[in-house]
Amino acid sequence: MAGIILSGCFRLGCVLVLSTLLVNMSEGSKLVNLPVFYQEATTSKYIYKTAIPEMTQLTICMWMKWVSTDRAGKYFISFSNANADNEFLTWFSPTDQMHVHITGSTTYNLDSCDNTELNTLMTNWNKHCFTWTSGGSFTWYNTKNDHDIFIKYRDVSTGSHTLRSGMNLVMYHDQDGQLSGMDSNQASNAYLAGLNVWNYEMSLDTINALTCEDEGNIATQASMSIYGPIGFTYDESFDCGSKYREALEKLYTFKKQSIIMCKVEGAKLSNHVVATPSADSAASCVAKCSSRKDCKSANYNTSTGSCELNDINGPAYEGVADYDDNADSSNIHYHSLEC
Ligand SMILES: [Ca+2]
């Protein structure tokens, strides 16, 4: 939603009335202005992250918008290390196939894509997630044509590989060294927002439950370092899919009811835990709660990833020792009372 700026000058000075609305709630979505990075076909600027540890699984999610339909020989994810400049990278071949290099020379090709479809997909803002697991598949998920639900777009089986430690991640370039050997002809003219990297493979259900509040444990866009003259713009709204504040279907035997989960940062409820399921994101933890009849609230810890399902809502215990609303910031409490 656009901001409105009114200004005027009078005898006693000027007035400025600034009205901006950065968050727009609408049914089923939450639009948020996120910082956008623009990579031009140049080696004089890029965003990067060093010292990435060994991995045998990956999930990489981001919003992308390429300014041109010329994708041939252009790259978008490049991990290098002392063993190989192509430790893990993805690029478009001249025939618009997506190629994946793993641990150097091992190359896999996703099925060829329809160029017209790819032009629409890549030159509009769409969310993309790439997952990979050693001995499994490399899979490309995206939200085609502005739909906010991911679908599986392409995949390819890969062999067993370990991405070795000390990796340098550079977006939208091909490294032929370590943070070096880049070629402006291989760089993409493309926008990027909401980048996150995790060292595990997410399921499609988990990817669909991600929101802007979920952060990659290996990299986030905010954690990337900057080389060269880079500015970020804030004039694009993104569907952050904040399902925490939406009605979630809570299923019962023979009936169902909707609940709304509200988020309290720095809060935790103790001594009412009915289950501790594994959950690889806050959204996944909340989804686990919504699938249980006896779950009224959830504690999620962003540092440890622990997910606790409770049989009572934390704020109902306000002032009681069991509910600590002054816990450290890694604790998030989701309750089903009115927000
Ligand atoms: Ca290379």
Describe the structure.
- The chain is mainly beta and 339 residues long.
- The chain has two domains: 26-239, Jelly Rolls (Sandwich); 245-335, Hepatocyte Growth Factor (3-Layer(bba) Sandwich), CATH 3.50.4.10.
- The chain has helices at 115-123, 204-209, 282-290; strands spanning 4-10, 13-19, 23-26, 29-33, 36-39, 46-52, 57-66, 75-80, 88-92, 98-102, 106-109, 126-133, 137-142, 151-157, 167-171, 190-198, 219-220, 225-227, 232-233, 237-239, 247-252, 255-260, 262-265, 268-269, 273-275, 297-301, 307-310, 323-324, 331-335.
- Strands 5, 7, 12, 13, 14, 16, 17 and 19 form an eight-stranded antiparallel sheet that branches. Strands 11-10-9-8-15-6-18 form a seven-stranded antiparallel sheet, with no helix packed on it.
- A hairpin with a 5-residue loop joins strand 26 (297-301) and strand 27 (307-310).
- It is elongated.
- The chain starts with a strand and ends with a strand.
- The model is unreliable at 1-28 and 243-257 (pLDDT under 50).
- The structure holds calcium ion.
- Calcium ion binds at residues 85-86, 174-176.
- Residues 85-86, 174-176 line the site of calcium ion.
